[in-house]
């Protein structure tokens, strides 16, 4: 468990909000007490108000004692009081003298007076120079503000480096220190925690704009979850396949909540085919390749964001009759109404189909079917929130 004692940055790029995002990204648990309130955005600080020790102490007293404390923007004298409150905890202080826009947070003499109360301090090279500090066994100096092709960090006579992600990013020091404390709480040595934190920060900055956006990297867990959800229904697809797989093959597409293109939709590349009467998966779930069902669900999600999954299946009148009997919402599509120019294109038909359904119904139904057209196999499409919901609907209408 990590205790965060840091300022509140309403922009979310640094401070308590960034601390929590970083630790959540690592899967580390955190508690937090706000030590200062700032008025700022990603490019400028307008004011700061430090909270009194009595306020902090009251909140800290309600929390269990931590093993690790990450200290951010704080009244420097409160670092001594934190040491007295937690004599056995490992305190890491990310010193911030001044914002990049020139707003002065701390006086050098106040910081120097309280340095020894922290087990480890983290600061950038400019701040280290102003304080007369060098990298040693209790001081980590970061070089992100200097020029060069590499980002360098110095600690205890050693130099660490990683690739530089070019750009101006608000909150890098905060994010680095939060990650460092997170890795320390996992049992990493300080040197290994530095390496891991630098590697993580590079990954975050590659997907960030203007400020550290660790939440974008956190989206990766949803990609893994999408694969798991599709893998979960593979046995059901194998069981039902002889009844559901059409001549063109079957697919199930599951869109990520923020998806904008087919490569942000999980699906089975190559579709699911019947081979000697048995379902065969050409590929495991992947975000690679394109799919007509992916285009369908992207369009459906545009109108109804919670509709993130769709499958296509063989058309049989008895399936439609059963769906109606069970109270599912069913829409019959007349493919002859499809514009001629779309029929000649490889893509466009699915988007037109879903758009027409929504225009007619004002919602995305459980089932959209058509009885075929020249060169078009009759087809049923089943929509839902997720793969399990979709396959449950399929099971209802075929069994």
From TrEMBL:
Residues 9-131 form the Pyridoxamine kinase/Phosphomethylpyrimidine kinase domain. GO terms for biological process: thiamine biosynthetic process. Residues 230-396 form the Thiamine-phosphate synthase ThiN domain. Signal peptide: none annotated. InterPro entries: Aldolase_II/adducin_N_sf (IPR036409), PM/HMP-P_kinase-1 (IPR013749), Ribokinase-like (IPR029056), ThiN (IPR019293). It comes from the Bacteria. GO terms for cellular component: cytosol. Pfam families: Phos_pyr_kin, ThiN. One of its GO terms (molecular function) is hydroxymethylpyrimidine kinase activity. PANTHER family: HYDROXYMETHYLPYRIMIDINE_PHOSPHOMETHYLPYRIMIDINE KINASE THI20-RELATED, PHOSPHOMETHYLPYRIMIDINE KINASE. This is Thiamine-phosphate synthase. It comes from Pseudothermotoga hypogea.
């Amino acid at each position: 468990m990590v205790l965060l004692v840091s300022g509140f940055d309403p922009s979310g790029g640094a401070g308590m909000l960034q601390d929590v995002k970083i630790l959540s990204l690592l899967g580390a648990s955190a508690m937090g007490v706000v030590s200062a309130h700032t008025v700022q955005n990603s490019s400028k600080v307008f004011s700061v108000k430090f909270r009194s020790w009595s306020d902090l102490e009251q909140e800290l007293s309600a929390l269990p004692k931590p093993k690790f404390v990450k200290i951010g923007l704080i009244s420097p004298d409160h670092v001594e009081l934190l040491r007295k409150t937690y004599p056995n905890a490992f305190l890491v202080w990310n010193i911030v003298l001044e914002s990049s826009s020139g707003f002065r947070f701390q006086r050098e003499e106040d910081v120097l007076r309280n340095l020894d109360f922290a087990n480890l301090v983290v600061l950038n090279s400019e701040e280290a120079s102003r304080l007369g500090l060098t990298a040693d066994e209790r001081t980590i100096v970061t070089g992100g503000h200097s020029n060069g092709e590499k980002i360098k960090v110095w600690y205890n006579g050693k130099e660490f480096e990683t690739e530089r992600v070019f750009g101006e990013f608000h909150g890098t020091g905060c994010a680095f220190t939060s990650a460092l404390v997170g890795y320390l709480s996992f049992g990493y040595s300080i040197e290994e925690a530095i390496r891991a934190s630098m590697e993580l920060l590079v990954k975050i900055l590659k997907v960030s704009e203007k400020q550290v956006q660790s939440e974008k990297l956190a989206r990766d867990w949803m990609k893994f979850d999408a694969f798991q959800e599709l893998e979960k229904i593979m046995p059901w697809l194998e069981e039902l396949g002889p009844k559901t797989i059409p001549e063109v093959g079957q697919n199930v597409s599951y869109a990520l909540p923020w998806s904008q293109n087919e490569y942000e939709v999980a699906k089975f590349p190559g579709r699911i085919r019947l081979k000697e009467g048995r379902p065969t998966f050409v590929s495991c779930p992947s975000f690679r390749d394109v799919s007509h069902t992916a285009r369908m669900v992207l369009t459906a999600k545009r109108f109804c964001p919670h509709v993130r999954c769709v499958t296509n299946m063989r058309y049989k009148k008895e399936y439609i009759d059963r769906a109606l009997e069970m109270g599912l919402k069913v829409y019959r599509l007349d493919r002859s109404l499809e514009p001629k120019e779309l029929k000649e294109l490889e893509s466009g038909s699915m988007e037109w189909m879903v758009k027409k359904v929504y225009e007619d119904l004002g919602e995305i139904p459980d089932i959209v079917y058509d009885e075929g057209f020249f060169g078009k196999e009759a087809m049923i499409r089943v929509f839902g929130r997720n793969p399990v919901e979709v396959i449950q609907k399929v099971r209802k209408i075929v069994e």
